[in-house]
Amino acid sequence: MVFSRLRLTEGDSGVLLEPWLRDVRRHGDRQVIRSGVRLLAVLSPLGPYFPDFLTPPEGADGLGAALDAIRATPRARLRDELKRLAGVSSTPSWTRPLAEGCDGALAELTEALAGYHAAAIEPYGELIEEAVETDRLHRTGSGSVEGLLHGMWPLMNWRPPVLEVQYAYDRDLHLNGRGLRLVPSYFCRHTPVAFADPGLPPTVVYPVHHDWTWQRQLASGRRQAGALAALLGSTRSAVLAAVGSGATTTELAERLGASASAVSRHTTVLREAGLLTTERQGLSVLHQRTVLGSALLGTN
Prior knowledge:
Blueprint lengths: L1 H8 L4 H14 L2 H14 L19 H9 L3 H12 L8 H5 L3 H18 L4 H15 L5 H6 L5 E4 L2 E4 L15 E5 L7 E2 L8 E5 L2 H23 L1 H9 L4 E2 H8 L3 H13 L3 E6 L2 E6 L1 H7 L3
Helix pairs in contact: 1-3, 3-7, 4-7, 8-10, 10-11, 11-13, 12-13
């Protein structure tokens, strides 16, 4: 949620995050998203610090566990972290009850976070999980910790026994036998991020490699297209794909470089198979894919 807020408010995330950005801006609950963005903009500004209590380690067990942990944040910690935040960024008056550990303020915070998550994150869980899983599979392909750490280049440089991270600020984090949790993030960009408090479980959140996701989707698309051609024949599968959001027989003929009579024969077969619908519009007929036709192409 913290990183997604940044991606929604910056101007150059489109290429990497286009599927999510396009959909959330068109179909997301704008009021809930704007409210969440305003809240997160105050509590998690872009550097050099935002409070660790917003990203509890319990989040590894899901959103509910994370929100429970936020609600249970000790008052002394809230006071210290929000005081540190006020030292580097402007904090409005509504943060004072939060800094004092007011139960009502914590409940309002977690309710707003849950609403933002439901609007901007949860509907895209499959998209996000695919990117994270693809990144994990690429980086852990060797099956060894050594291979994993070397696979973090260029975000990180493994120089045993030190893992050097391209970080915005110079600091040393000593594990002291505690181990290190590496968290791939769909919304993180540019550089990894760690907890500000060295006493917390050592954690590095790093940006997933989105190129791997695109490559996987393209490979899947090529396999799907090949399988469909084997099922329908290359010409009919091409006709089905060329229909797009709707096309007349003449438009299909132009797109495919075929005669209108040949296209008409193929659309008849596809219609009888339940993959297309055909509706007359004046002197033309409009072809559209059915739900089954879209499912075969993997576009629904």
